[in-house]
Amino acid sequence: MIALLLLATLSGQPSLPETGTAAAHQAAGRSVVVGDPGDADFWERVQKMHNLERVLLALPRVSTSVAVLEKLRAEGFTGHVAAIARFDDEIESLRAA
């Protein structure tokens, strides 16, 4: 089973759009984790998802995405990662991570 990972960074609390999106994906039978990637509890919940195959990072700062990529790799994640870059110069930072 493919798991969908949604990240929200607004004061550690998912905003209404993230919770609505998460609920829609859960209703479709997908596994969803919503939370702040800077929160240790978030990573504990992610680690419980042994079937995680793909991660989509749509974070406001490339430095946060790079930190999340480094954390995923350190935890042994070998699946596919897609990340959003707002500017061309952010692409290389994401690829290097």
Rg over C-alpha atoms, rounded to the nearest angstrom: 13 Å
**Which stretches of 5+ consecutive residues score pLDDT under 50?**
none
Largest sheet: number of strands, sense, barrel closure:
2 strands, parallel
Question: Biggest sheet, strands in spatial order?
Answer: 1-2
Give the ordered list of helices and strands. Answer: EHEHEHEH
**What distance lies between the first and last C-alpha atoms, to the nearest angstrom?**
26 Å
> How many beta-strand elements?
4
Question: Residue-averaged pLDDT, rounded?
Answer: 75
Estimated structural class: alpha/beta
Give the overall form: globular
Total helices: the number is 4
What is the strand content? 15-25%
Helix content: 40-55%
What's the short version?
This protein is an alpha/beta fold and 97 residues long. Helices cover 43% and strands 19% of the residues.
Task: Write a structural description.
By secondary structure, this protein is of the alpha/beta class. 43% of the residues lie in helices and 19% in strands. The chain contains 4 helices and 4 strands; from the N terminus they run E-H-E-H-E-H-E-H. It has helices at 16-27, 40-47, 62-74, 88-96, and strands at 3-7, 31-35, 54-57, 80-83. It has a two-stranded parallel ribbon with strand order 1-2. A two-stranded parallel ribbon has the order 3-4. Strand 3, helix 3 (62-74) and strand 4 (80-83) form a beta-alpha-beta unit. It is globular, with a radius of gyration of 13 Å. The protein starts with a strand and ends with a helix. The mean pLDDT is 75.
